[in-house]
């Protein structure tokens, strides 16, 4: 029997790296950022200072549309008192990111290839995290 996601604080805090500030500051404002290479034009995620495609350091933050498709997903029902869904979402810009699927009612209704849109949830420590919900 599936348990719906309840809108609650996410307990684990992200490990912040130097240079992650723009990503999390934008998330707190309801925006999803990804990096885009100024030389080859490709988007990438996770954020890093060098393009993984061409090796250029000419990369900048770019606001993503916040829409994509579920590439893969799994439900974890035994890790704590509330089940949660981990997923890889391929953004319309191209990169695939690991995330959570939330606000979906019954996890058993979530399907590979399903369209999703970004939403933002706060951790108990107040950090805003981008997650995805069915479109």
Walkthrough of the structure:
With about 140 residues, this protein is mostly beta strands. Helix content is about 5%, strand content about 40%. It has one helix and eight strands. The strands form two sheets. It has a five-stranded antiparallel beta sheet. The chain is globular. The relative contact order is 0.24.
Descriptive tags:
135 residues; mainly beta; five-stranded antiparallel beta sheet; 1 helix; disordered N terminus
Largest sheet: 5 strands, antiparallel
Low-confidence stretches: 1-9
Based on DSSP secondary structure assignment, what is the total number of beta strands?
8
Order of helices and strands: HEEEEEEEE
- Count of helical segments? 1
Nutshell version of this structure?
This protein is mainly beta. It has one helix at residues 21-28, and strands at 33-37, 43-44, 59-63, 67-76, 84-91, 96-101, 115-122, 128-134.
Give the helices and strands, then pairings.
Layout: H1 21-28, E1 33-37, E2 43-44, E3 59-63, E4 67-76, E5 84-91, E6 96-101, E7 115-122, E8 128-134
Antiparallel strand pairs: 1-2, 1-3, 4-5, 4-7, 5-6, 7-8
């Amino acid at each position: 029997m599936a348990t719906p996601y309840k809108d609650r604080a996410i307990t684990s805090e992200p490990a912040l790296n130097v240079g992650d500030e723009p990503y999390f500051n934008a998330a707190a404002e309801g925006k999803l950022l990804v990096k885009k290479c100024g030389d080859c034009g490709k988007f990438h995620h996770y954020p890093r200072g060098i393009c993984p495609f061409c090796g250029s350091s000419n990369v900048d933050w770019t606001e993503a549309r916040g829409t994509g498709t579920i590439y893969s997903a799994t439900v974890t029902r035994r890790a704590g008192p509330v089940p949660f869904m981990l997923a890889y979402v391929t953004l319309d810009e191209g990169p695939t990111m690991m995330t959570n699927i939330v606000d979906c009612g019954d996890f058993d209704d979530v399907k590979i290839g399903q369209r999703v849109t970004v939403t933002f949830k706060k951790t108990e420590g107040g950090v805003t995290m981008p997650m995805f919900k069915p479109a």
